[in-house]
Specification:
The protein has 355 residues and is an alpha/beta fold. It has one domain: Alpha-Beta Barrel (TIM Barrel), CATH 3.20.20. It is built from 14 helices and 11 strands. The longest helix has 25 residues. The radius of gyration is 20 Å and the shape is globular. The relative contact order is 0.15.
Length: 355
């Protein structure tokens, strides 16, 4: 099977010749792998690791220059990611600062905000990027994340407080953000017809010990918009990929009912997530993406620990020889021994063969 055939078979619950693999990696790990294999060509790394992967493309913005009121560069809606956080392992993350709606307390104030034009993108350029990959790999583009948008606009703490204290403000904000996202993605889907396989309808509702907010809050504010976004994807024949960190297992039945088809990252070390239960209860509806434990085993275990973890995940989540795209349960972090990364994908090749 080709990489595209193998990944698509897993997504659609058809027999696979082996477990397909994918990798979410920080830039530091990508650099380490390029150095290890003595190349600057990522395609060489993919071939050496036996990575099938999912090809992605982004939005190409063509609108007016985006700047904050003080003239600093920013992203969509004035969200600015400029605070550099340096990790002890040598890695770097960037966090949003000065959320543009942090000061807003009244719905009327939203009318003065620049919600931008969702047509300000070169959708033909995205289509061309997908066209280059589509014959070879399953493709993904697009990103609906209603809670993440609220989080970016207000800041996480203020967003959570407003959900409880100013619900009408959050509802009004979601009407505006989702109107933008729905039109942006409609234009994307029209331009990329026949080239796009997957779109993310996703969020980060889970924490280490459970949900970040009540289920009632999620049902009231976010899931109605999920239904609209998922329906749009399905209207264009696009399958839905849902990323959700942490202990979010209580949401899975509702996600399936709304039409989610791929679930990532399967952080089963978090609250109440059990691999056997996931496969038994939800394996006929969901393809699992990720799953190899990345809080303890990949960064701190031995190569044999990693190999044992890979075998366990294949045995459970691919017990019917499909329905799993194996990889780390989130991006492999800087400082992870390269030997562990190599062991993960080597063991997937050794133990994941069905034919």
């Amino acid at each position: 099977m080709t990489a595209r055939e193998r990944v698509w078979a897993a997504i659609t619950h058809q027999p696979c010749d082996r477990v397909p693999t994918d990798a979410w990696l920080t830039p530091e790990i990508q650099r380490d792998l390029l150095q290890h294999f003595g190349t600057d060509d990522w395609g060489v790394v993919e071939r050496e690791l036996g990575l099938d992967g999912i090809a992605s493309a982004g939005f190409v913005y063509t609108g007016p220059p985006r700047t904050t009121p003080d003239g600093e560069p920013c992203g969509l809606w004035g969200v600015r990611a400029t605070r550099e956080v340096k990790l002890p392992t040598g890695g770097v993350y960037y966090e949003a600062v000065s959320p543009p709606l942090a000061h807003v307390t009244e719905v009327a104030e939203l009318d003065d905000f620049n919600w931008e034009n969702p047509a300000d993108y070169d959708f033909a350029a995205t289509a061309e990027a997908l066209r280059q990959q589509h014959p070879h790999k399953v493709t993904m583009c697009g990103y609906f994340a209603p809670f993440v948008d609220i989080w970016d606009l207000y800041g996480l703490e203020t967003a959570l407080l407003n959900l409880a204290l100013r619900p009408e403000l959050i509802e009004a904000t979601l009407e505006r953000t989702m109107a933008y996202r729905l039109e942006q993605h409609r234009l994307l889907f029209e331009a990329c017809a026949g080239l796009l396989d997957l779109t993310q309808v996703t969020d980060d509702f889970g924490g280490q010990t459970g949900l970040l907010m009540s289920r009632e809050t999620i049902d009231r504010f976010f899931f109605p918009w999920y239904k609209v976004a998922i329906a749009l994807c399905h209207r264009y024949g696009i399958k839905v990929f849902h990323h959700d960190d942490g202990g979010m297992d209580s949401l899975i039945p509702a996600l399936i009912e709304m039409g989610v088809e791929i679930l990532n990252p399967i952080q089963y070390r978090c609250y109440q997530i059990d691999l056997q239960t996931l496969k038994r209860e939800y394996g006929k509806d969901l393809c699992f993406h990720g799953s190899v434990e990345n809080q303890v085993i990949i960064p701190y275990g031995t190569p044999e620990d990693v190999r044992a973890e890979v075998r366990k995940n294949i045995e459970i989540l691919a017990s019917d020889q499909t329905g799993l795209i194996l990889g780390p349960c989130h991006a492999i972090q800087s400082g992870t021994p390269i030997e562990n990364v190599l062991a993960l994908f080597d063991e997937a090749q050794r133990s994941g063969r069905f034919a």
